């Protein structure tokens, strides 16, 4: 094995250890009393630790809370289908949320909950070093870009988070209220995938 391959392997091993340590920190986090009281499992994130694409959602829902994995319910199936249509396998990306614990009754995360979880998200991004970030929904877009702009205004443009391209789109769960949204999400994720080589 070449020196370069060995250092890359060691680097990957170190990254995996640091992500595991971070996941342990999330698992015992008690900063948000309302979230801790109602959670079954914190949802750290899952996927490829060296992914070119890192997708960020809002917060876990009921299914995610029960399984401890992001996007495993109906919205996850929509997302998986869109990714596959673009030639991207779920196992090749990393998926997480802005907030790691399910808010009561699936309400939107509160600003202090987003702030409390922000260091976890920032560390995930720093360790995984994706080529592109996808913000799934307005909460994720607002957190990544530190903006209050509407998703309608953020879509279709490549933004930046610490020099990483960011593409914003609707949360896949929105498809169940408006089926036409699915094609818009596909367009946005096509834009996202196109950023990998640029």
Kindly describe this structure.
The chain is of the alpha/beta class. The protein has a single domain (3-194), classed as Uracil-DNA glycosylase-like domain (Uracil-DNA Glycosylase, subunit E), CATH 3.40.470. It is built from eight helices and six strands; from the N terminus they run H-H-E-E-H-H-E-H-E-H-H-E-E-H. A six-stranded mixed β-sheet has the order 1-3-2-4-6-5. Helix 1 (3-27) packs antiparallel against helix 5 and helix 4 crosses helix 8 (181-194). The longest helix has 25 residues, at 3-27. The protein is globular. The chain starts with a helix and ends with a helix. The model has no long low-confidence stretch (mean pLDDT 93).
Q: What is this entry, summarized?
A:
The chain is built from eight helices and six strands, in the order ααββααβαβααββα. By secondary structure, it is an alpha/beta fold. It has a single domain (3-194), classed as Uracil-DNA glycosylase-like domain (Uracil-DNA Glycosylase, subunit E, 3-Layer(aba) Sandwich), CATH 3.40.470.10.
